[in-house]
Amino acid sequence: MTVTVETLEKLERKITLTLPLEVIQSEVGNRLKRLAKTVKMDGFRPGKVPMNVLTQRYGYSVHYEVMNDKVGEAFAAAANEANLRVAGQPRITEKEAAVEGQVAFDAVFEVYPEVKIADLATVEVERVTAEVGDAAIDKTLDILRKQRRTFAQRAADAPAQDGDRVTVDFEGKIDGEVFEGGRAEAFQFLVGEGQMLKEFEDAVRGMKAGESKTFPLGFPEDYQGKEVAGKTADFLVTVGKIEAAHLPEVNDAFAKSLGIADASVEALRNDIRKNLEREVKFRVQARNKRAVMDALVSKAELDLPNASVQAELGRMVESARADLKQRGIKDADKAPIPEDIFRPQAEQRVRLGLVVAELVRKENLNATPDQIKAHVEELASSYERPAEVVRWYFGDTNRMAEVQAVVLENNVTEFILSKAKVTDKAVSFDELMGQQG
C-alpha cells in the first residue's frame, strides 16, 4: 500500500483513505445476518425476523458501525505503513468526490514531535542534601508527647498561657449583627498553637476563669469565610475553664506506649531517626527531581501536539471537578471551569512527558522489575505489616503503574545528575520539611 502524507503545518498531517464499497456492503450484510440470529422484535419469533424488516430497523446503525471500524482499520494501517506516531484521535471527514465503487475520507491528525535535547553536560543543576540531626529527633519527640498530653484544671486565679486548653463562650458581631459562625458555647482550643486567629488568642491569653472581655478582630482579606473576609468584628469572650497541659516524660514507659519493641529511649530515638531519614530521602529526591526536570526541559526543543495538550486539560478539569465534589460543592460536575487557567501547567506537563520519554527511549532508562520491587518494599517498610502493603501494591495495576512512573523518573534524574554540572547545597531539616518559622 502506498500512503501519501500531506503536511499541513508543524505537527498536523493529512492522509486520504479509500475503501471499496463492496467491502463495506459485504460486512454490513454479515453483521445483519449475525444480528438476525439473536434479535428480538414484537410479532416475530427469535431468529425469524425478515431481513428487510431487520435492515429497515438496524441498517443505518450497523452501516455506521462498519464504516467507523473499517475507516479506523484503514487509518491504523496507513499510519503504520508511513511510520507515523499519531498523537490523539484523527478528525475524519468523508470526501464528496470519489472513484466509482469506492468511498474516500480525509484523516487530519497530529504526530508526536521530534525532540531535540541539548548536550546534558551543559545542564546546570543545584542538588540539595539534608541530614537528620538530634534537633529533628527532639522536635519529633515533642510532637509525640503533645499527641499524648493530658490536661488538669488550673487554679481559679491562674491566667491562661500558651499550651493551656481553654473553654470559652464567644459572640462576634459585624455592624451590630451576629454573623454566621460567630457564636459558640463551651468552645475549646489550645492557646498559642494557631487554632484561632492571632487577635483572638492574644485576647484570651492572660484571662482568668470567669472573666469576660470585648475586643475588635480584623478578618484577613483571604479568610476562608468570604462573608466576613476583610471585615472587622466586635467579639465578647467569656472564659469558662482553663486547663494546664501535662506532657509525658520521655522514658522507657513512653517508648513502650509507642510500640517500641526494646521499650527503651535509645530504641525510640533510633526508630524516629530511621523514619525521618526515609522521609528526608523521599523529599530530597522529589526536590532534586523537580530541579532536574526543569533543567532538562529548558534544554529541549520541540513543538507541542495540541491533541495531547487538550487531553491533559480535560484530565485537569475533571480532577478539579472531583476536588470540588469532595469539598461538598453543589453541582460540581456542572461548575464552569475555564480550561485556560490550566493551560500553562498542561503544556508544561505534556512538554516534560515528551522530553522524558525521548530520553528514556534514547538511553534505555526504563524501570526494571528489580527496581520496582525495591521501591515498593521501601514504601512498605514504614508500616507495621510491610508484607501486606507489598501485596496491596502488587495487587493493583494502577498502583503499580504509579510506582513504575516514579522509578522511571528517578532513573532519569540520576542519569542527568551523572552528566550535568551539579552544585551541591546542604539545606536544614526544617527547610526541607517546610517547618521554617
Give the SSE layout:
Layout (H helix, E strand, L loop, with lengths): L4 E5 L2 E9 H16 L14 H31 L4 E9 L7 E10 L4 E2 L6 E6 L4 H14 L2 E4 L11 E10 L2 E14 L7 H7 L7 E7 L13 E15 L5 H6 L7 H34 L1 E2 L4 H21 L16 H21 L5 H12 L5 H9 L2 H23 L1 E6 L2 H5 L4
Parallel strand pairs: 6-13
Antiparallel strand pairs: 1-2, 2-4, 3-4, 5-12, 7-11, 8-9, 8-11, 10-11
Protein model, in words:
This protein has helices at residues 21-36, 51-81, 134-147, 198-204, 252-257, 265-298, 306-326, 343-363, 369-380, 386-394, 397-419, 429-433, and strands spanning 5-9, 12-20, 86-94, 102-111, 116-117, 124-129, 150-153, 165-174, 177-190, 212-218, 232-246, 300-301, 421-426. The protein is an alpha+beta fold. The chain has three domains: 5-111, 2-Layer Sandwich (Alpha-Beta Plaits); 150-246, Roll (Chitinase A, domain 3); 255-433, Trigger factor, domain 2, CATH 1.10.3120. The strands form four sheets. Strands 7, 8, 9, 10 and 11 form a five-stranded antiparallel β-sheet that branches. It has a four-stranded antiparallel β-sheet with strand order 1-2-4-3. A hairpin with a 7-residue loop joins β3 (86-94) and β4 (102-111). α9 crosses α10. It is extended, with a radius of gyration of 33 Å. The N and C termini lie far apart (69 Å).
